[in-house]
Amino acid sequence: MGRARLRVTPVGLGLAALGRPAYINLGREEDLGHDRSVAAMRARTWEVLDAAWEAGVRYVDTARSYGRAEEFLAGWLRERRIPPGALTIGSKWGYAYVGGWRTDAERHEEKELSAARLHRQLGETRALLGDHLSLYQIHSATVDSGVLDDAAVLDGLRALREEGVAIGFSTSGPRQADTIDKAIETGLFDTVQATWNLLERSAEPALARAHEAGLGVIVKEGVANGRLTARAAPAELRAAARERRTTPDALALAAALARPWAGVVLSGAATTGQFHANLAATRVTWDDDLDVTLAGLVQAPEDYWAARAALPWS
Q1: How many angstroms separate the first and last alpha carbons of the chain?
Q2: Which residues form a coiled coil (predicted)?
Q3: How is domain 11-217+225-309 classified at the architecture level of CATH?
C-alpha cells in the first residue's frame, strides 16, 4: 500500500477505543462495564488483537495519545512472539494522553504538532515498539495548524523516512480535503488516514487524488463512532442491512471497502464480538443500488463534525 509498499489487509484494527478507559464511541458502558482498570483494558486489548491476528488482519493502528495502547500492543507482540515485519504497525504523534486513566477527566488529550513533540514521542514509541514500527503519522494534521509548513517537522519526518519508516498523516475536521491536497504537494507522505463514512464523504475526491498520487489510504471512523451501528443507525441503513441479512456496521464498513482508493479500512472494535461483526463487511457485496439508497445519509461536513465534537467521553 502506498509508495512505501506497506503490506496490509483490507481490514485493519485501530486501538483508539482499547488503550484508554474513556473514548467517544457510543455504548462503552455496555461494552466494557465498570472495570476500566489497566489490567482489564490490557486483557481486552489482547483478546481483540488475538481475534484480529487469527482472522488474518495484518495492519494495526495506534497512537501516543491512545492511553496505554502502544504499551499493550508491545506486550502482546512479545508474549505472542510476533516477529518484526509479520504485522504492519502504524502509530501517530502530536497528541498526548492527559486523562490520568479517568473516565471523568476534564481533558483526555492535548495536541501539539511541534518538532520537539515529534522527536520526544518518536523516542517513546520506539522504546515500546522498536523495529515493529512500520508507519509514523502526524496525528490530525490540518492546514490551519501549520504543521505541513513547518520545516523542522518535515525535515524530521524525511530523516525518519530515510531510515526505512513510512511517513503518513491523519486528518480531521470539515476541511480534510484541503489538508490532503496540501500534503500531496509536499511529496513527502506515503499514506493518508482520513474519516470517510456514509455520513461524511467530503474527503472522497481528495482521497482519490491521493491514491492517484501514490499514497496509501487508510479509512478511519467507518461507523462514525457508533452512529452507524445498530445502536444509532439511521432507519435507511437499518432497512438496507435487514434486506441484505447483515448488520448496519458491516454494511457501513462495506461501503468504505468498496471505494477504489481505499487501501485499509479500520475496525475500531472494543470487543471481540464487535470485531467479528465488523469483519463481516468483507462478505457483503456493495452495489450501485446501495449507493443510491443511502446517498441521503450524507451530512454537511460542518454538521457532521459538530455532532462528533458533542459526543461524550465515556
Answers
A1: 34
A2: none
A3: Alpha-Beta Barrel (3.20)
Helix residue ranges per DSSP H, the chain: 28-32, 38-54, 69-79, 115-129, 151-162, 176-186, 204-212, 235-243, 248-257, 272-279, 288-293, 301-309
* Beta pairing class for 95-97 and 11-14: unpaired
pLDDT in tens, 21-77: 999 999 999 999 999 999 999 999 999 999 999 999 999 999 999 999 999 999 999
Q: Are 57 and 269 within 8 A, CB to CB?
A: no
DSSP state of 137: E
C-alpha cell, 12: 485493519
Is residue 90 helix, strand or coil?
strand
Say if residues 276 and 246 touch (Cβ distance below 8 Å): no
Instruction: Please say whether the beta carbons of 98 and 107 come within 8 A.
Output: yes
The x, y and z cell numbers of residue 255, run together, are 461501503
Question: Model confidence over 176-208: pLDDT tens digits?
Answer: 999 999 999 999 999 999 999 999 999 999 999
**What pLDDT was estimated at residue 118?**
98
Greatest Cα-to-Cα distance within the chain, rounded to the nearest angstrom: 53
Backbone Cα Rg of the chain = 18
Of 223, 236, 224, 230, the C-alpha closest to 296 is: 236
Please state the rounded mean pLDDT for residues 288-310.
97
Grid cell of 170 as nine digits: 491523519
Classify residue 159 by burial, with Cβ atoms within 10 Å: 0-12, 13-18, 19+: exposed
Where do the domains of the chain lie?
11-217+225-309
Report the percentage of the chain scoring pLDDT > 70. Answer: 100
